[in-house]
Design goal:
Layout: H1 14-24, H2 29-42, E1 51-55, E2 58-61, E3 66-69, H3 72-75, H4 85-96, H5 108-118, E4 127-131, H6 134-149, E5 153-157, H7 166-170, H8 176-179, E6 190-193, H9 203-222, E7 226-231, H10 247-258, E8 261-265, H11 279-282, E9 289-292, E10 303-307, H12 309-312, H13 332-368, E11 375-379, E12 382-386, H14 390-402, E13 405-406, E14 408-410, E15 416-419, H15 427-445
Parallel strand pairs: 3-13, 5-6, 5-7, 7-8, 8-9
Antiparallel strand pairs: 1-2, 2-3, 4-10, 9-10, 11-12, 12-15, 14-15
The structure holds pyridoxal-5'-phosphate.
Pyridoxal-5'-phosphate (PLP) binds at residues 74, 133-135, 138, 161-163, 232, 236-237, 265, 267-268, 293.
Length: 446
């Protein structure tokens, strides 16, 4: 379903309010505290809607409002809400076998999924370790780096997000407040380097940012204790920041010189989101480890850590007594979903994302040109609109919700609208969003 919004009652409607209030009394109080802080910053109600169902690019809430979903479940629903080929494949697999026995007795679907994922790596002999979440894949990558290099420290980037379980949290540079209360529990010593932007105000600034970033990486690696350089090819939650084209190749060289693994987190950028199955490979950089998640299962939880043969063979040390596994890792329905998604993205959706994303970026940039503070950037269907501050971004996001468009805010300062619709979205819906966006920004200005 690719339909325009229909807002029947101002969101959140009464049923959403009632359910949200029940949830707030039983879930982590962090989320309500965050809503309160956001309401204060934006001077707008931040009460949540509650989803009832999703179809294609549409979400319907419990008050029967229909929205266009420009978030796709944090970027994971690349094929849209159901029905889609991944969910159908998962259901068919489930009818046969819900769970095999993980790393002890596999299913044929796990064999095929691992083969398909290993084949994404441009060198023979790549190995695959499956997980459920993006954080699982990053955990696996960090462990791989420690095993392969014997060095436990890591270099990561300010503004980067890699998940919130302990290993990924240690390398998560997005918000120090995610890390600080747990700092003593995080074992990985991490140096954070600044993440350079291709879209700095002028070319000289972009060069300075790149130099500063690479100098920080070089200095950290010179200490000799880092086994991994962990990087997103484009910051996702960090605000859709695209680095200069020489950034990833330079990291590749620096990691090689230092004997560290280059781990590329493609959990958000990969699976067609930025116009290629794997963004770094498209940019000509072969890392040691690629992490995929989010869109990989088309909505079904599955992630993968895909590593070059030479790095992954470290897992065979210790006679196999050091392993990384989990009860639900590699379950047949998830593997079936991944196979179906890989097929759909590889055969057409990545190209589609590149094409319709480029047009949408142009439309948004042109429409936002009169607003001097607005910065529009992105690649494929991962587009950021940076506004004046977090308060403005939240207020605009809220106004858009009222008009039937679901968007998230992100960026290190929370000032960026993050637009990541399903790759199957109808271009007409994207175009219809643009005047709503400018109207919402304008109302904020008035
Ligand atoms: C780039 C990136 N890496 C890792 C993660 C963590 O994935 P998950 O939330 O599935 O653990 C995310 C989630 O937003 C992400 O954007």
């Amino acid at each position: 379903m690719n339909e325009l919004p229909e807002v029947k009652v101002a969101p959140p409607g009464p049923r959403s309010r009632e359910l949200a209030s029940r949830l707030a009394s039983v879930e982590s109080p962090a989320f309500e505290a965050r809503r309160d802080a956001r309401a204060q910053a934006s001077r707008a109600d931040q009460g949540p809607i509650v989803y009832a169902r999703g179809r294609g690019s549409n979400v319907v809430d419990v008050d029967d409002n229909r929205y266009v979903d420009l978030t796709a479940g944090f970027g994971a629903l690349i094929l849209g809400h159901g029905p889609n080929v991944a969910l159908e494949a998962a259901r068919a697999a489930e009818d046969e076998l819900v769970l095999a026995l993980g790393d002890v007795y596999a299913s044929e679907l796990k064999v095929r999924a691992c083969e398909a994922l290993a084949a994404l790596f441009p060198e023979p002999g790549a190995r695959v370790m499956l997980g459920l979440s993006g954080a699982d894949a990053i955990t696996c990558a960090l462990k791989t780096a420690a095993l392969a290099t014997g060095k436990v420290a890591a270099v990561a980037f300010e503004g980067a997000y890699h998940g919130l379980s302990y290993g990924p949290l240690a390398v998560c540079g997005l918000s120090p407040s995610f890390r600080e209360p747990f700092a003593a529990q995080l074992g990985v010593p991490v140096t954070f380097a600044p993440y350079p932007s291709r879209d700095a105000d002028d070319a000289d600034d972009a060069d300075v940012e790149l130099d500063e970033s690479l100098s920080a990486v070089r200095a950290a690696l010179a200490r000799g204790d880092a086994g991994a350089v962990v990087v997103e090819p484009m910051l996702g939650r960090g605000g859709c920041v695209i680095p200069p084209s020489t950034f990833l190749p330079a990291l590749r060289s620096l990691a090689d010189e230092a004997g560290a693994l280059l781990v590329v987190d493609e959990i958000w950028t990969g699976m067609g989101r930025t116009g290629a199955l794997v963004a770094c490979l498209d940019a000509g950089v072969v890392p040691d480890v690629i992490c995929l998640g989010k869109g990989l299962g088309g909505g079904v939880p599955i992630s993968a850590c895909i590593g070059r043969a030479g790095a992954m063979e470290a897992w065979a040390k210790h006679g196999g007594s050091t392993i990384h596994t989990g009860t639900h890792f590699g379950a047949p329905p998830a593997c079936a979903a991944a196979l179906a998604t890989l097929d759909a993205v590889g055969s057409s959706l990545a190209d589609r994302a590149a094409e319709i994303g480029a047009r949408w970026l142009e439309e948004i940039a042109e429409a936002c040109a009169p607003f001097e503070r607005a910065r529009v950037r992105g690649k494929g269907l991962m587009i950021g609109v940076q506004l004046g501050d977090a308060g403005e971004a939240l207020a605009v996001a809220r106004a858009l919700l009222g008009r039937g468009y679901i968007v998230l805010t992100g960026g290190t300062r929370g000032d960026t609208l993050t637009l990541t619709p399903p790759l199957t979205v109808a271009p007409e819906l994207l175009s219809a969003f643009v005047p709503e966006l400018t109207a919402a920004i304008e109302r904020g200005t008035a």
